[in-house]
Write a structure and sequence with these properties.
Layout: H1 4-10, E1 14-23, E2 31-40, H2 46-58, E3 63-71
Antiparallel strand pairs: 1-2, 1-3
């Protein structure tokens, strides 16, 4: 059985990394970095948007900036069904 992550990749999900800078609650003049990484869909990023909405609603450190990188790990040209089998003795 294939892993859940592999099945998501076949559905078009790719590895998304967000580099999040936010103001520290106790020292607003200082920035702190948080790196978030999940499988997500380009270009709308529903998982990342859900996380950032949670951040704005629930966490004290206001966001400064978010940089996003996305890579599809399985591309259409790299996947094909093989029906043949070769046995070597």
């Amino acid at each position: 059985m294939a892993s859940a992550d592999f099945r998501r990749q076949l559905q078009g999900y790719g590895l998304t990394t967000a580099d999040i800078l936010y103001h520290m609650p106790d020292h607003p003049g200082l920035l702190q970095r948080f790196v978030w990484q999940r499988y997500d869909l380009h270009p709308h990023y529903p998982e990342l948007r859900r996380f950032l909405d949670f951040w704005r609603r629930s966490l004290d450190g206001p966001l400064h900036s978010v940089r996003v990188a996305h890579a599809r790990l399985i591309k259409p040209a790299e996947w094909r069904n093989v029906n043949d089998e070769f046995l070597l003795n």
